[in-house]
Amino acid sequence: MLISEVFGYGVENLGDDAWRSRNAKRCPFRNSPCTKSSVSDPIGICSLANEAGAASLCPVRFVERDVIFTDAARLAFGEGVRFGIFPEVRILKIVAENEGERDRKIGKVDYILGRIDDGVVTDFAAVEVQAVYFSGDEIRTPLRYFLENRELNPEISERRPDFRSSAQKRLVPQLQLKVPVFRRWGKKFFVVVDTQFFGALPSFGHTTPANSELTWLTYPIAKQGDDYRLGDATVIHSEWDEVKNALREGTPPEPDEIVAELQQKLDRRQNPARVLES
Prior knowledge:
- The chain is built from 7 helices and 16 strands.
- The chain is α+β, with helices and mostly antiparallel strands.
- The chain has one domain.
- It starts with a strand and ends in a 10-residue tail after the last helix.
- 29% of the residues are buried.
């Protein structure tokens, strides 16, 4: 997949607004300076794309027009409800063991949506956002080439999104820590990904909205003119145990397979283990 967006604009967009944003190193999705990887020298590459669409490299890419928040709020609270967006809220507390120490909080959720009725927060739901990592060479070189030459060099701008690593090393640990808490509370938990990311996940069973413990909002990032836009979300309702089992790294073999492998190693003396008596 090739680099497709730089500082919020498609690489084919060479208009004045696009270059003002790039020269200022701004993120148009949150209307503030880009801080991806560095405050002073950010890597302003938002996505990679192929003929099927774009895959987001940055979680901030998903806040375009606040669509993910309004979609999640409608599902969690209903239509026409006022709500607040509270970023990076920690939900778990570690009690201090020694006198004079302070309690610590861990388990930071990307966003908590709080329902507001007459100025009072009356309910809440979680929104976790996951972008994809890429594999291959570093990406600053093609970024600098594009900014200096105002064109993409395809020979150095291709990278492979590593959906498996992003799911197993980043998404799964986050969900294992947070989803059980919200399930215990009976609160909605949403995961936002792009359709390419979701399509690369192992399949798992779906359930009804009433029984959903983990609700996926999957968005296509499709090209429109010279830029890319979030499309309408596909909503997938799931149970946590189904997702956890599907995303587990590998499938355990039958015990007989393990016994056969050990016997083979023993017979061929390929194992480093010693044979002792108990």
